[in-house]
């Protein structure tokens, strides 16, 4: 079965060998052919071959599906009250995670699945076609395993985040909890996870604990990523680079040495502007990272405490307006950057051979994602070439 997407006013391929030669690989007046779920042909609309089916983009822009490389979608309950209190002046401390842990433990598998399905659909209809999902609101072996099992029903990009915070029942016994995470919990999580993550932060896990947890995960075959330098400066970014983690996420408080280390590595700096927006905190310095040559990704950090949005278009708009990324840099970071942060060469671009995950926009240019914030511009989403 072949499919033609025709009348594309502006096609973003993220393949610099195509079109205008920029990082976005822009092709004007383009068409794209899908065969067996993959991009089979890209080119000038007037040269498009015949296919079994046709989708007309009506001169709108077509972009690669967003790759949201950082979410926490397995949870129950919400924390709207905490958000309102924060907007009234209370600081964000991360302490509210315990509220979600209690609600998540009390929920049935069906409730967790239904909540996740709702959020996944929200993301999909805003153009997210690849999504990473973390555990981390179970914090017991059984609750972490079931969180990952539910997440696996929705994505291959599942991340074991047993080291989110130390749960209340281990208060004052951090090292016992780290031993549990590195041992029984890691072993039980393994069949359901691709990645291992840790919240390396004052009040969560320090550098030595984070190193022990990531090394334990790597020892059994999980790939490392890390919550680093979000609320304070810490050792997380250096640890990420040392361990060749796919991604260091947040990167809000960086030293010059951290920026240089990221720029000289294959570790992606994943920025999560929804978190700063929702906690009314200073944004990470995207320009400093980009100008140093680091690879930057944008992700939603969707979670009920500090960033309850599934919208990658929103993240792109905030990154442009508040972090001074150009619209082109922000779109690249939300697609190709996310793919690098998940080490997925098959997604995040629309070169020949890529998975045919894409969005047709109700706009003449991808620039409208930032230019028209809050407007639902994603008209049609294709997942492996299938309209959703
Ligand atoms: Zn996170």
What does this entry show, briefly?
The chain is an alpha/beta fold and 388 residues long. It contains 13 helices and 18 strands. It has two domains: 2-65 and 349-387, Urease, subunit C, domain 1 (Roll), CATH 2.30.40; 66-341, Metal-dependent hydrolases (TIM Barrel).
Description:
This protein has 388 residues and is α/β, with parallel strands linked by helices. The protein folds into two domains: 2-65 and 349-387, Urease, subunit C, domain 1; 66-341, Metal-dependent hydrolases (TIM Barrel, Alpha-Beta Barrel), CATH 3.20.20. The chain has 13 helices and 18 strands. Strands 1, 2, 3, 4, 5, 16, 17 and 18 form an eight-stranded mixed sheet that branches. A hairpin with a 2-residue loop joins strand 17 and strand 18 (386-387). Helix 4 (141-152) runs parallel beside helix 5 (174-189) and helix 5 runs parallel beside helix 6 (207-219). The mean pLDDT is 96. Bound molecules: zinc ion (ZN). Residues 70, 72, 227, 301 line the site of zinc ion.
> Low-confidence stretches at least 5 residues in length (pLDDT < 50)?
none
User: Can you tell me the CATH architecture of the largest domain?
Assistant: Alpha-Beta Barrel
Count of alpha and pi helical runs:
13
Specify the CATH class of the largest domain.
Answer: Alpha Beta
Overall spatial form: globular
CATH superfamily of the largest domain: Metal-dependent hydrolases
> How does the helix and strand content classify structurally?
alpha/beta
How far is the N terminus from the C terminus? 17 Å
Main beta sheet: 8 strands, mixed
